[in-house]
Design brief:
With 257 residues, the protein is mainly alpha-helical. The chain is built from 8 helices and no strands. It is globular and about 55 Å long.
Length: 257
């Protein structure tokens, strides 16, 4: 292969990250912030239950079944069942839209936004601006968990490496392990992919933290108002069109550590 006219030094120059990949990272970071906010609102105002973090619900269910403290059996069970139903129905719907060549990503986001909006309206009508912790609305909880199940099917289909949007444990593990084993990022294409991977892992961790903080602050408005605010963010993203280009193709996988 002939050498580039710019000399061998150009081969080792850092390769800039593609703009579409950066947009994908921003979109998935926003969705991570939303998930963190949803779980903070749900946990703080609906009786110590999660809508997205199903690991927590499984543990709450085991605590309740073992009789350890005043932990509800019903709330985590409702969240688990409706979350699973959301995953299954969304996966089927996405596959059907793909088979017809339809734009499935904004449709799935809009579905999530509508479910969150209905849950917020339900809570607002039943509880006003107060929390639901002392008498949680199971219908609203089911709707929010259903929305997060839809989200899970979406991120599974998009498959952006290091950005599951609903949890951060593996992102944290991957980031720490990658930095520990290869602290220096190489130049060239491999370095570009590694920088992108680390950016996405860091964005997932930071996005969940920011979302949890914002959700905690929003919980002071009451369950209904808080979920309506989150729904507005999701609907705005669904209608914005910013996701059309970046998410049409599968993002590159990070290089092996």
């Amino acid at each position: 292969m002939p050498e580039s006219s710019s000399g061998p030094a150009s081969a080792s120059a850092p390769v800039p990250v593609d703009r579409a990949e950066l947009r994908t990272t921003v979109i998935m970071t926003v969705l991570t912030v939303v998930a963190g906010a949803v779980d903070a609102i749900t946990f703080l105002t609906m009786g110590h239950v999660f809508a997205a973090l199903e690991t927590g619900n499984v543990l709450f269910l085991t605590f309740a079944l073992a009789g350890s403290g005043p932990v509800s059996v019903v709330r985590p069970a409702v969240a688990l069942v409706t979350f699973a139903f959301g995953v299954g129905t969304a996966a089927y719907g996405i596959r059907a839209l793909l088979a017809r060549g339809r734009r499935w990503f904004p449709a799935a986001l809009a579905t999530e936004g509508v479910l969150l909006a209905v849950a917020g309206t339900q809570s607002l009508l039943r509880r006003g601006t107060g929390p639901s912790a002392h008498g949680p609305d199971l219908v609203a909880l089911a709707l929010v968990a259903l929305a997060m199940g839809v989200r899970s099917a979406v991120v599974l289909r998009v498959a952006v490496p290091g950005m599951p949007t609903l949890l951060l444990q593996m992102s944290l593990v991957q980031l720490v392990a990658d930095v520990a084993t290869a602290p220096r990022v190489p130049d060239g294409e491999q370095g570009r992919l590694r920088r992108l991977a680390r950016t996405r892992l860091t964005a997932t961790i930071g996005g969940m933290f920011v979302g949890g903080t914002l959700g905690t602050l929003a919980a002071r408005w009451g369950t209904g108002c808080a979920f309506l605010a989150v729904a507005a963010v999701v609907m705005a993203l669904a209608l914005s069109g910013v996701h059309d280009g970046p998410l049409r193709r599968r993002p590159p996988a990070p290089p092996p550590s």
